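Progress against Task 2.4 (sequence-to-structure conversion) is shown through the following example record, which the project officer requested during the mid-term review.
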Amino acid sequence: MRRILAAVDAYREGIEERGSENAQRLLGFVLLLRYTGMRIGDVTRLTSAQIQGKRLFLYTQKTGVAVNTILPQTVLHALELTPRVTEKHYFWDGKQQIEIAIGSWRRRLAKLFELAKVDSAHPTDSATHSQLNSYCQASPLNAYRFCLDTKAYESLRNTTRLGCDLAKSNSKRT
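Structure tokens generated for the chain above:
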């Protein structure tokens, strides 16, 4: 995860036109993926109305599952600094076909993973979870670091494969 976040600066430098704005959006996007366990499409659709104070509440597009979590201050700060595409939307203009916008975000994430030199990154909805899963599988200590590092762990545990894998590995140890 550190390499991915550090690669945001390389992304900023590598894109001349609107690089700083896009890099800041990318940082907010990645942090939302990491701390909420949401899919790329749900983060792309995110509106300011879905965040009230520190609380994020929405229903996922794919399954209709409620996401109701408190966002860490780091994520809130990144979103405050994120230039919104419109007054309402952080990452999408609300006019373009959503599939096109999601595809653009997948390509941005793929480029970011390439800059971060993250092995076998694929720009799919589960790309970020796949990368975190690989990180956690590399060492049990990494899994514990991840669990201790996020206040949204309970939300992730219930909504992502990573959480399922961590829950299984933790239950085997007890």
